[in-house]
Amino acid sequence: QQQVKQSPQSLIVQKGGISIINCAYENTAFDYFPWYQQFPGKGPALLIAIRPDVSEKKEGRFTISFNKSAKQFSLHIMDSQPGDSATYFCAAVTSGTYKYIFGTGTRLKVLA
Amino acid sequence: KAGVTQTPRYLIKTRGQQVTLSCSPISGHRSVSWYQQTPGQGLQFLFEYFSETQRNKGNFPGRFSGRQFSNSRSEMNVSTLELGDSALYLCASSLDHFDGYTFGSGTRLTVV
Asked: Which of A49, A100, A107, B99 fits A91 for a cystine, CB–CB 3.0-4.6 Å?
């Protein structure tokens, strides 16, 4: 019940295309859902995050869609660029615990 | 502002030895968490400290321990190293869990 299932494991997208990464969870106590971007040799960096009281959040080319009833959330990267090539992790956390449950990661490659 | 600083960046140890890793959080962040990252297991939560107290602990053996000092700097220690402890160890600090983590670049530990 503490797992966060992330798919796909890897993704190849043409420059200018849309990259979509999905995550699903079971624990309804989760109330914060961030996405992290990690480049080789670096720690993950917070990209965008959402709370379950909204269904969508957009920041630039990055959008989180959240479906509370289905217990799923996804990251959409519009107009994908080669510089977006990285590993993306979704995560979920319960209030007050500070314990993040991370998905297994998606390696995105954007072809020039 | 300065980010999360982890030292050392790389470390090679022999089985059976012990190791201490250091983390300096962002100024003002009192919560410090540690994660182990491996290709097979992804990001696994080790523990979280807040105001010098361990608030949360993951499912790692007692060989993994940590502490936090009054200036919020944190250390983690692994005793009796095993080959399977080879991983990237990431430290993350946070003001509040709704702010998300800021990760350091990690310490790459190799056990030979």
From this structure: A100
pLDDT by residue (tens digit) across B33-91? 999 999 888 899 999 999 999 988 999 999 999 999 999 999 999 999 999 999 999 99
Question: A93 contacts in B (CB within 8 Å)?
Answer: 97
- pLDDT for residue B39: 87
What was the pLDDT predicted at A1?
A: 61
Chain A residues in contact with B46 (beta carbon < 8 A):
none
Burial A19-48 (b: 16+ CB within 10 A, else e): bbbbbbbeeeebbbbbbbbbeeeebbbbbb
For B81, the token pair is 């190293």
SS3 state at A93: strand
Cα separation, B21 vs A81, whole angstroms: 36
Please report the DSSP string for A27-62 in residue order.
-TTEEEEEEEEE-TTS--EEEEEE-TT-SEEEETTE
Give the contacts of B107 (CB within 8 A, at least 6 positions apart): B6, B7, B8, B9, B10, B11, B21, B88, B89
Pairing between strand A86-94 and A72-77? Answer: unpaired
Closest chain A residue by Cα to residue B101: A46
Which chain B residues have a beta carbon less than 8 Å from that of A101?
45
pLDDT tens digits along A52-69: 899 999 999 999 999 999
For residue A40, say if its preceding peptide bond is cis, omega within 30 degrees of 0.
no
